[in-house]
Design goal:
With about 325 residues, the protein is of the alpha/beta class. It contains 10 helices and 13 strands. The structure holds ligand A2R.
Length: about 325
């Protein structure tokens, strides 16, 4: 079986590529752009790559015609919420139009039976009152960032192409996920890198933080990519699934757990540059629909994810 992973050079794509290869009997092809950094995938052997820019319809058509994948995990995106405020148009264009280009390429190639993973996000829910948690797939979508809006667009395009053309699209809404290779601008990597730098004497012993009150449902990326695989293997076409642990510690608790993993004594300082214009207060998943459909359960604990992330940054700073 042949699997195409768009955005394979990113954080999630590299973990998904490893999972696919470990399953055996799966030929993995990944997409890249000429400037894409290869450091996340450099260690993965026998990886076939195809150049593709999702903003270019010709490029999408050409790549899909050449690869002829059975399954597509569409991970390529402008994935960073804060950048969606400073570059809203390119976020919407990359995420929504990019996926549309892939859908249209599949249509014109008459390959609508290709299994297509639409990679949504809990950011689609945005504003959620406490009494509306845990969040099920039936919660209202009230995104609070252009990124959240772009993911609603991808999600609903997946639904529409399933209804209108019978595309085998399976939609997921992943709650927060972290682990090794997550960029340092995102939690918990941001904390991990700062702690690792403090341990090496590379910065003053101050961890700079934003909103510590927000409650977040963190899954290890290795559990998340297993979920994505199961979504295409066992999920219903057209259906949408939340993926998360169902636990939501505060960001402050996550920081405390990480600080308990270091000998360094540090001051925690809240700084305005790490606050967001509008932050989602609570994201906690009800992923029972997904668990019932696929049998998925997270296997890696929060502490394991945090300590692996810290180790990753200790090796790199
Ligand atoms: O920017 P690059 O060349 O390093 O490639 C990134 C790719 N990408 C694109 N690929 C083709 N055409 C584009 N116009 C384009 N724009 C971005 O998407 C990179 O390989 C990938 C994004 O990787 P990360 O930023 O590390 O995202 P992550 O955390 O792996 O997220 C995967 C999915 C996304 O749909 C997120 O929105 C969702 O999970 O949370």
């Amino acid at each position: 079986m042949k699997v195409l992973i768009t955005g394979i050079t990113g954080f999630v794509g590299s973990h998904l590529a490893e999972l696919c290869q470990n399953l055996g009997d799966v030929e993995v092809v990944g997409t890249y752009r000429w400037r894409s950094p290869r450091n996340n995938i450099g260690h993965i052997k026998d990886l076939e790559l195809v150049e593709m820019d999702i903003l270019d319809a010709t490029s999408c058509h050409r790549a899909l015609a050449a690869v002829e994948p059975d399954w597509i995990f569409h991970l390529a995106a402008q994935s960073f919420v804060p950048t969606s405020w400073s570059a809203p148009a390119s976020t919407i264009t990359t995420n929504v139009l990019g996926q549309l280009n892939l859908f249209e390429a599949l249509r014109s190639l008459d390959r609508l039976d290709t299994r297509f993973h639409v990679c949504g996000s809990s950011e689609e829910y945005g504003y959620v009152a406490r009494e509306e948690t845990p969040i099920t797939e039936d919660n209202a979508l009230r995104p609070l960032s252009p990124y959240g809006v772009s993911k609603v667009g991808q999600d609903l395009l997946g639904y529409q192409y399933f209804r209108s053309y019978g595309l085998h699209a399976v939609r997921t809404r992943a709650f927060n996920h972290g682990g090794p290779r997550r960029g340092d601008v995102l939690l918990p990597s941001d904390f991990a890198k700062q702690i690792a730098e403090i341990e090496k004497g590379l910065r003053e012993p101050v961890v700079k933080v934003g909103n510590l009150e927000a409650l977040r449902d963190f899954t290890d990326v290795r559990d998340m990519v297993r979920a994505y695989w199961l979504a295409l293997e066992k999920g219903e076409p057209g259906e949408v699934y939340n993926i998360g642990t169902g636990n939501a510690p505060s960001i402050g608790e996550i920081l405390d757990r990480m600080l308990s993993m270091t000998e360094a004594s540090v001051e925690v300082r809240q700084v305005p540059e790490k606050m967001r214009p509008s932050d989602v207060e609570i994201l906690i998943s009800d992923s029972s629909r997904f668990r019932a459909a696929t049998g998925w359960e997270p296997q890696i604990s929060l502490d394991q994810m945090l300590s692996d992330t810290l180790e990753y940054w200790r090796e790199r700073v």
